[in-house]
Amino acid sequence: MTGRLGTLTTLYVTQYLGIGFITVGLTAILRDGGTSLDTLALLQFVGLVWPLKFLWAPLIDRYGSRRHGHYRSWLLPLQAGLVLTLLALLPFADPTRQLGPVVAICAAYVFLSATQDIAVDAVAVRVLSEGTRGAGNGIQVAASYLGNLLGGGACVLVYDRFGWLPAVGLLAALTAVGLLVVWRLREPDRVARVAGAGQAYRALLSVFGQPGCRWWTFGVVPLLYTGAGAAYALVTPALVDAGWSLARIGVVTGVVISAPAIVAGLLAGVGVDRFGRARLLVVGGAALAVSTVLLLPLLNGRAPLGATVAALCCFMAAYTVANVVLYVVNMDYSRPGTGGTDFTVLSSFGLICSFLAASVGLAAADRVGYPAVALASVVLVAVGVLVGLGHQRRFRAGAIRPEPAVAHVTPVG
């Protein structure tokens, strides 16, 4: 199991390296070169590919090579594609002058990364038992912050000291490590597969037919993600309003708060496996509510460096704990034969809730102020925890996911 967790760790980290570079590092580089904020805002839209990846997730579950490994046959070209798209950035040493091609390459990278994530999640569904899903999903969440730290922080430092070519080259080299891991991957034999593309797409909806899945997905998930997403959306504009420089905001929100989030993700993964989903949901939800309250001085315009960084670190660590629990239960509902589709559609719904919450939260803050939105977020998180506890009391984690994978599969052979 240690080897499997190591494989998942490497694949999750490498998929987020480029994402961290695009959303944090490249944004800082372009801004330093004089790119307008409106243009930088457009760059962030390439991230919208991730919530939409459920649209092609069934194809990943349906088609694959039995000889080379069903998901491995996807991961090999996808991981290679991630490396090649990063290498394609090498000629653009001054990205501000050739922004169109750079954004196009970044969009291609995000698409490949999102697709790779479907396949990695499907492998995780198959290799992680009920007792190790916490560790596996703790690694997944922590890996996103580690990738952000390396891609958005370390590579920017390399760029600042040595220039564009060494920075992008380092990014590509680190991502290539994942290609070596995929080459050595030996996934378990697939005893069942989806019979046709139509049946694969029906899995998008059939996942909600499992006991308690609608309660979890349309009750607990929106409450927690909306509460957390609306609160976090206030942070950057509040920091700007408090007089922080863009450089300080970028370093703190893109790099500094990633470290406690990584630690929190790993600890939460171990905690879920040891103490159960319900207890960690309470811990994460309570910490999220308290840390949101700690942000109130910032939201009222007072942002001393030490106290603000501490509050942001607490918030991100708490959000990470809650996120690990959400991912673990999503994996409980993911069936082995359609793991890529199931986990993707459940996780994508949470991402969509976060995007909507950020938009609604900012719009509401313009009318009622930052503190009012933050307090409403605390209420939503508290209600989400209560609804989640009710769900966990009624539906045992081990009884959620049927074995083998539902009626949409036919034996291989």
UniProtKB/TrEMBL annotation:
Name the predominant localization.
membrane
Write out the entry's keywords from A to Z. Answer: Membrane, Transmembrane, Transmembrane helix, Transport
- Give the Pfam families listed for this entry: MFS_1 (PF07690)
Select a single GO molecular function from the record's annotations and give it.
Answer: transmembrane transporter activity
Q: GO cellular component terms?
A: membrane
Enumerate the Gene3D superfamilies for this protein.
MFS general substrate transporter like domains
Q: Where are the transmembrane segments?
A: 12-30, 42-61, 73-93, 165-183, 215-235, 247-268, 280-299, 305-329, 341-364, 370-389
In its keyword annotation, does this UniProt entry include Membrane?
yes
Q: How does it sit in the membrane?
A: Multi-pass membrane protein
Q: Which InterPro entries match?
A: AmpG_permease/AT-1 (IPR004752), MFS (IPR011701), MFS_trans_sf (IPR036259)
State the name under which the record lists this protein.
MFS transporter
Which organism does this sequence originate in?
A: Micromonospora wenchangensis
